[in-house]
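Hello,

I think I submitted the thiamine diphosphate job twice by accident. Can you confirm which output corresponds to this input? Input:
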Amino acid sequence: MKGIDLISHAKNTWCPGCGNFAVQHILKDLLAQMDGGGLPLENVVLVAGIGQHGKLFDFMNLNGFYSLHGRTIPVATGIKLANPSLRVICVTGDGDSYAEGLDHLIFAAKRNLDITVLVHDNRVYGLTTGQFTPTSPYGYRGHSTPRGEREMPLNPMDLMLAAGATFIGRGYTGRRDELKRLIREAILHRGFSFVDILQICSTYNDLTAYYNERVYAWSEEDAGDRQAAERKAGEWNYSDDAKIGLGVMFRHTAPTFEDAYPVPGKMSPDERAGWVARILSERS
Ligand SMILES: Cc1ncc(C[n+]2csc(CCOP(=O)(O)OP(=O)(O)O)c2C)c(N)n1
Ligand SMILES: [Mg+2]
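Support: Only one job matched these inputs. Its output is below.
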């Protein structure tokens, strides 16, 4: 993989101003830097969901898997367990992970599976042209809510804290340097790392002014304190004067799923079948 351009030659079809560009370029820069700093590109696997965000898979030259809608995490789980030495990064959408694939997100966090989940949270179904998602703002008007959304948004930060994620952060594509640092730390974290990336959908949900007025950087001194994290998670209550904190909200060290169920690295298919048979026979 050395020496190749991480941006692929596939024709880019994102709208001008789409937040996905920021994430793409941050990943490109970060992974190139990390390649020279102990994380070889050939050990990185990108797993994409289905949506505008999922096109990242086409637009980057990385090893990976273009999965089904809502199914990045089951695919990432299989990859990680088959070869725990790989760094597995899921790029997923708010529809992908907070609607269709929500159960996978919760249980991967609970297991503390050592993967990174980056949610491109544009708070809308972008690819399918503007239907509401679990994080769409109250009152959001789109094709499926012409009179305005009448449910309050899901709070992914509360959810991930309750589920047991050991690294929880929130970034904003309008604050690129901070977002880059956050994604870097998430990738380096050992255990389940989750970043909710606030990004606009320039066609269906342009919240640029709303975010720019409200975002600020959290103090991270108390990132290991669960009660402080609970307070931070609940701080953005979606009222007009609410502030939106950015950065690492919670960070905690705990045994990973792979620590609890050590999976040998390289094995032939026959060796692996024998290994699984041995485990199953232990039950009787
Ligand atoms: C099982 C399944 N259900 C529905 C769809 C249709 N579908 C494709 S993308 C998408 C929504 C994508 O929204 P999100 O995950 O927020 O991604 P975005 O386009 O906003 O990046 C839907 C409903 C599908 N492809 N597969
Ligand atoms: Mg979306």
